[in-house]
Amino acid sequence: MDYHRRAIDNSLDELLPAAPAIALEGAKAVGKTRTARQRAAQEWRLDSAADRDALRADPLLLRRPPHPALVDEWQRLPETWDMARRWVDEGAAPGSLLITGSASLPSGIDTHSGSGRILGLRMRPMALFERGVTAAVSLSSLLDGSESITGSTELRLPWYAEQITSSGFPGIRAAHPRIREDLIDSYARNIVDRDLPEAAVSVRAPHTLRRWLAAYGAASSTTTAYNRILNAALGPDGQQPAKTTTMAYREHLERIYVLDPVPAWSPSRSPFAALQAGPKHQLVDPALAARLLSLTSTSLLGERGRHLLGPLFESLATLSVRVAAEAARARVAHLRTNDGRREIDLIVEGRDGQILGIEVKLTQEVRDDDVRHLLWLRERCADVVDLVIVTTGTRAYRRSDGIAVVPLALLGP
Fold this sequence. Notes:
With 413 residues, the chain is of the alpha/beta class. The protein has two domains: 117 residues, 3-Layer(aba) Sandwich (Rossmann fold); 284 residues, no CATH class. Helix 1 packs parallel to helix 14, helix 6 crosses helix 14 and helix 9 crosses helix 12. The longest helix has 22 residues. The protein is globular.
């Protein structure tokens, strides 16, 4: 299978010549190992007992050339982190080590580039612009305030429904369409049956956890209270996971990157009244939410799934914006006031504090009512550099009020 370049490749091209050790973090199957292998000169596969035993017996093996050395599935041998930190502290050359894994970094590990130790880069499923479409509008340029809004596409709503359900996991996307659903079903089962147990989490009632995951998927792109999600997980047997149990599951599901909630925006210089602090719920891939709810691209466009098409379209847009924002070293959050009167789907905050506000609308035509919250944001926040409505339309343009209208298929890094 040919390798399709990802947005994170640009970051690796820039950072690997300067950083002694880089960790690619993210959920299983997002493509971390494949991307790292494009640069690795040797590989240690820690899902192999032989490789684990060899490194455990002699950690200095990691330092032998050629480099970069790739350590895959680090969580199978957690002391790998100590090996890496010691090596960096003792003067490892830039580009010495690439680490991949599907669990979050251990507490106490500083992943910022300025620390001089291990630089962490987040990798997510494939954004739309990584799936073979040509993006005409750059998120980085929008953050710079320099983007001219042009471009057109023939892609319409049925195509977006197909993109929602066909997954951003590279291996699943590459599979025959007839078995993609089975592969996503297997991915969902493995979360409960293998991934959590491998993280030393005991799942006493797998069927109730699966119902909770489905309820969480149904809450995609909302700030629904966790109590309501828990109530929605009630099964025909009248059982539901205990609140304390689901709190523990949530923590571990975030640690293995299955849950990918969008945090609430907390501006450092806030001209706003109190903002809601709750996250907006998202699973790692909208295809996973669709399969947990037994939705196909056809049913999403029909009566049974129509009410979830908008939230899952927002999930797809959120994925693309987050991948593009990572490439621009920007943060992504959402804004919602405590009274619920004002809400903006995505706030992208650049390195210099510049703000890009994005609303996601399942529509081809933008009305004045669709932009009222964005106009409010511009009035309240001097750091706003641009405002965008992401749609399912066919043409990118700028409205007379200055707001950019951009079909999701045209948005890129």
